Amino acid sequence: MRLWKRKRDNAALNSILIRRPIQRYFWLFLLPTFAAFCVGFLYPFCKGLFLSFCKFKTTSKWTWVGLTNYAKALADPSFMHAFWYTAIFALVSLIIINVLAFAVAYVLTQGIKGSNLFRTVFFMPNLIGGIVLGYIWSMIFDGILTHYGTSILLETKYGFWGLIILMCWQQIGYMMIIYIAGLQSVPEDMLEAAKIDGATKWQTLWRVTIPNVMPSITICTFLTLTNSFKLFDQNLALTEGRPFIMQAGGLTVKTTEMLALNIVNSFYSTNVNSRGVGQAKAVLFFILVAAIGLIQLKSTRSKEVQQ
Description:
Blueprint: H1 2-24, H2 26-51, E1 54-58, E2 61-64, H3 68-75, H4 77-108, H5 115-123, H6 130-145, H7 156-184, H8 188-196, H9 201-212, H10 214-229, H11 233-238, E3 244-246, E4 252-254, H12 259-267, H13 275-301
Antiparallel strand pairs: 1-2, 3-4
Helix pairs in contact: 3-13, 4-7, 4-10, 5-7, 7-10, 8-9, 10-13, 12-13
């Protein structure tokens, strides 16, 4: 008994002696990560925020103009059109992706044969890059629409629903995996209690399963919203913002152009003096996505059930 107690005390002492040097020099382990964070994110972010208040051609040659760039950005009809277009796109894709992903996950957790194979098949489109997906679906849509004498680049509605289909095809499998993890974590005793009480499958789904899957719904809703607002490569490859609308004064509005693509087109336009406006749009875009994400997280987390 004494020997066992002595060994236990020695093990505890060794653990304390090992932990103290680690706690003393932990900053040496954090320093490389913090330096990479400052170089790769913090400095570019602060520099971009500063340049949004400037007129510049290069980052080393700038002229302070204050809020002029923000005023021009908000007065740009193409930016406002891209904002509303992106908002509608995000809302539609949010509903369709999460409903279908949850439905597929629910079916695949009912013990059907080949469920693991189906999970792999549904997840695989998420592994393909957005540019490649855009060009593949562009050829598919144009191959279908040529029979009707049109193209996805000639009709705004075709471009919108083409982006929705592409986004759903890519994202549903990924969200499905998250929903499957949530469904598998639902306590079995709750499901058994609902069955004993005579609840139907529909009642069990709405009163037991969905409240317990709210953490997964929170994650999937957040990812879908942010991915929809940040969509760029698929938009560039599929429609590139076309078709165009010419407005009074020679202004051109791309009817399927989303916010991220509009910012890039503004920054790299033929007018180099518009880079400040493009940077201001990027700051507004960051504030918008961050605000929407925080509001969504707060609203859905309040509905989560504590197990």
